[in-house]
Amino acid sequence: MTHHSRFIISVLSFGYAFLYIPLLLVVIYSFNDSAIATVWGGFSTRWYGELLQNDLILDAAFLSLRIAVTSATAATILGTMAGLVLARFGRFKGRTLFSGMIFSPMIMPEVITGLSLLLFFVTLQQLTGWPGQRGFSTIAIAHTTFAMAYVAVIVQSRLMAMDESLEEAAMDLGGRPLRVVFDITLPLIAPAMIAGWLLSFTLSLDDLVIASFVSGPGSTTLPMYIFSKVKLGVSPDINALASMIIAAVSVGVAIAWLVSRRIARTSSNT
Amino acid sequence: MKDFICIEGVSKLFGDFKAVDNVDLEIGQGELFSILGGSGCGKTTLLRMLAGFEIPSSGTIKIDGVDVTNMAPYDRPVNMMFQSYAIFPHMNVAKNVGYGLRKDGIAKPEIKKRVDQMLELVQLSELETRNPNQLSGGQTQRVALARALIKQPKVLLLDEPLAALDKKLRERTQFELMNIQDELGITFVVVTHDQEEAMTLSGRIAVMDEGRFEQIGTPKEIYEFPTNRFVADFIGTINMFEGIVTVVGENQIQVYSDEIGETLTALGRQLVEVGQEIDIAVRPEKIFVSKEKPADEDGVCVQGMVDDLGYLGNRSLYRIRLKSGKIVQVSSQNRRRSVTRFLEWEDKVWISWRPRSAVVLLD
């Protein structure tokens, strides 16, 4: 083995260690018997049991999941439409402004986005009476706003890479424009839409800042709950919760990988 | 019908750029017509206006007597085979070919029957369940052709139909295309930058440059009787000699050319005047090269020196340098089988051609 490859391997292992040792520690300490989260007191699964009896945590997790699914779905629909317009409608009046507005949530500091959305909801309530109470719907709308920017970028770049004559060919063969979108465009950008959905879901699930601005009493998302508990010192059931999330995400990633590999294989073999 | 496709005064502007500039063209029913030109000459824009993807800035397009100038692509009796072939990657061969019929709401058994027929025509019957990424370049081209023909369009537009194929396959496919066109009697309009493709395929060719037609005619007319310098130079190789008309006779003229160093005779097909500056153009294969001065008295005969030569198997190419420094390209058939060369570098030779072989070009 040469010095060169030894160097590469050590860099690689350092990189992996940097990424995964903190996660590994969380998983290990979730099985810690001690009540003090940083001191090892033997193996136990008691924190998992306590976690499942903690209604506050379970409510927060369920709320976060509902928000994530709703906002990811809405962001995928809106972001795909925005990506289509940007990639396929050529130069129209206000295109520069439109693309600037679409992508601004990506660059804008979260604090600013959160604050402006809060002001927006308050003003809206004063004018129309809705939303009566901030919570699920306001957080979902806020998450949709910034997640759709990411979907738009992914979909637009996929469309840019796609041969436009595919859609022209479909139109040439008698497909009306809307039909062509469903026959040709959507099936071909479906992978980008799925990627966009997953990204939006993740972004929504771990957002703390924006949710803190636009949530109301009684609607605490999981990140908000964890953050508030950590302020009082890390308790071991948070480790258990984190381990469960890591497990869920790992399973999700594994399934996504298997599905994509299977799609790749069927499209190249049959 | 001579004016099956009728293009009248059509222009297309992109901003200030005139992609197509006031073009008139009539194409007959069942014709195999090519539009030939370099990149950016406006040929693809013209084709896209026939397909309906671009709307002309002015002028009208009629197909079979119907004004289609502003008609949407999906309403036109026209189908197109795209340069990239544009095969739908998420549909198999049969689905691709049947797409046009499905959009017309035709019943499934009928679609199946017609797809089978069409696949048989392009010799792809065994591949109907294949996915596009499992097809070779030639097979992809046939799927594209079958898909574009299945609706029995009045006109089939082909954008660089053979550009993506390798040379051997291209030659074979050319003849297949011609046979299919002959069998179905559909009017084909081909856009290409490849003059060989245009010459073999088409009944008539329009040579296009900067948004205008430079010449429209049969391949023979365009090759043997180009009407201007652009066409002469664009199609094949040609030697051009600048000259000044000295004598205008009844059907031949005398031209003095500095580059040749003497006065030569040419047939005056066009109206020229004494003192007019013209070009005399001669194709390389119309020039004879010999070591002895040829006996033919009417011919043009000039002395030169072999500057370069190339052996291509069926023929040899010579570059002959005249006294003026002008290089003349000569192509001669290798009729005899021999390993010794007939000419070597630096050989003093005579080149000659008959007056009727030269073309007089005014602009």
How are the SSEs ordered, and which strands pair?
The complex is a heterodimer of chains A (270) and B (363).
Chain A: H1 3-30, H2 46-53, H3 55-88, H4 95-107, H5 110-128, H6 136-161, H7 165-172, H8 177-205, H9 209-214, H10 222-231, H11 236-269
Helix pairs in contact in A: 1-11, 2-11, 3-6, 3-8, 3-10, 4-6, 6-8, 7-8
Chain B: E1 5-14, E2 17-27, E3 32-36, H1 43-51, E4 58-63, E5 66-67, E6 78-81, H2 93-103, H3 108-121, H4 137-149, E7 155-159, H5 167-184, E8 187-192, H6 195-201, E9 204-209, E10 212-217, H7 219-224, H8 229-234, E11 239-248, E12 252-257, E13 262-267, E14 277-282, E15 288-290, E16 300-311, E17 315-322, E18 327-333, E19 348-353, E20 359-361
Parallel strand pairs in B: 3-8, 3-9, 6-7, 7-8
Antiparallel strand pairs in B: 1-2, 1-4, 4-5, 9-10, 11-12, 11-14, 12-13, 14-20, 15-19, 16-17, 16-19, 17-18
Helix pairs in contact in B: 2-3, 2-4, 3-4
Could you explain the architecture of this structure?
Chain A has 270 residues and is an all-alpha fold. Chain A folds into two domains: 53-233, MetI-like fold (Orthogonal Bundle), CATH 1.10.3720.10; 234-270. Helices cover 80% and strands 0% of the residues of chain A. Chain A is built from eleven helices and no strands. Chain A has helices spanning 3-30, 46-53, 55-88, 95-107, 110-128, 136-161, 165-172, 177-205, 209-214, 222-231, 236-269. In chain A, helix 3 (55-88) packs across helix 10. Chain A is globular. Chain B is an alpha+beta fold. Chain B has two domains: 5-233, 3-Layer(aba) Sandwich (Rossmann fold), CATH 3.40.50; 239-361, Nucleic acid-binding proteins (OB fold (Dihydrolipoamide Acetyltransferase, E2P), Beta Barrel), CATH 2.40.50.140. Chain B contains eight helices and 20 strands. Chain B has helices spanning 43-51, 93-103, 108-121, 137-149, 167-184, 195-201, 219-224, 229-234; strands at residues 5-14, 17-27, 32-36, 58-63, 66-67, 78-81, 155-159, 187-192, 204-209, 212-217, 239-248, 252-257, 262-267, 277-282, 288-290, 300-311, 315-322, 327-333, 348-353, 359-361. In chain B, the strands form four sheets. A six-stranded mixed beta sheet of chain B has the order 6-7-8-3-9-10, with helices on both faces. In chain B, strands 13-12-11-14-20 form a five-stranded antiparallel beta sheet. A five-stranded antiparallel beta sheet of chain B has the order 15-19-16-17-18, with no helix packed on it. In chain B, strand 9 (204-209) and strand 10 (212-217) form a beta hairpin. Chain B is elongated and about 75 Å long. The model of chain B has no long low-confidence stretch (mean pLDDT 91). Chain A binds chain B through residues 163, 165-166, 168-176, 179, 183-184, 187-188, 267-268, 270, and chain B through 51-53, 72-74, 78-80, 82-84, 86, 88-90, 99-100, 103-104, 129, 131, 133-134, 147-148, 151.
